[in-house]
């Protein structure tokens, strides 16, 4: 993992060119018709074939569109069928704006599968005194409090705590409906869209999943 200061420097230097690249893509290259599936933040190893993969990191990973997810997404209104973000939104500073923007890009009936570190499971496991549930990434900690902090904030990379009710609030406020939680790697309401995504997800505890995932749709009449 890159040190936080180096990342901050990267975003400071690359922020403007990334923004301009996003604007250029939106107005000159973004699809206006056809099936459009958008994968936000594939990272180094989760590139999805058949999806438009968007990331700020085009150096150690592979992406189709180099763009900053803190800025408006590089797509026209109501042109996207499915959006997917796995362990990405907790890095974004303005989730209200993010969900509104994904909603804007989705077609009526379009669906967003989104999630990240499961704050709910983490708090339950902390209260239950289960240190083994926590992972040693990015840092190894001895105490359960340290493990909780490590999981939730990830050396300062994560800016928020994800829980079901918070995600539902954000999504409903943006206009989404039918918010439902899904087990990573196992459940989706739209296998026709998200089967590929289930294959790249990871989970070892299906009672207290490490990843909180939800799916919600844009109403047909919007
Ligand atoms: C923790 S990785 C997750 C990668 C992958 N989705 C997975 O589940 O393994 C977060 C990814 O989001 C990307 N990301 C974070 N903030 C971003 C931003 N503001 N703009 C574009 N990409 C961003 C990072 O570059 C990184 O590839």
Spell out the blueprint of helices and strands.
Elements: H1 4-29, E1 37-40, E2 52-55, E3 65-66, E4 80-86, H2 95-105, E5 106-117, H3 119-127, H4 144-153, H5 164-174, E6 177-182, H6 191-200, E7 211-217
Parallel strand pairs: 1-2, 1-4, 2-3, 4-5
Antiparallel strand pairs: 5-7, 6-7
Helix pairs in contact: 2-5, 3-4
This protein binds S-adenosylmethionine (SAM).
Describe the structure.
The protein has 222 residues and is an alpha/beta fold. The chain has helices spanning 4-29, 95-105, 119-127, 144-153, 164-174, 191-200, and strands at residues 37-40, 52-55, 65-66, 80-86, 106-117, 177-182, 211-217. The chain has six helices and seven strands, in the order H-E-E-E-E-H-E-H-H-H-E-H-E. Strands 3-2-1-4-5-7-6 form a seven-stranded mixed β-sheet. Helix 2 (95-105) links the parallel strand 4 and strand 5 (106-117). The chain is globular. S-adenosylmethionine (SAM) binds next to loops.
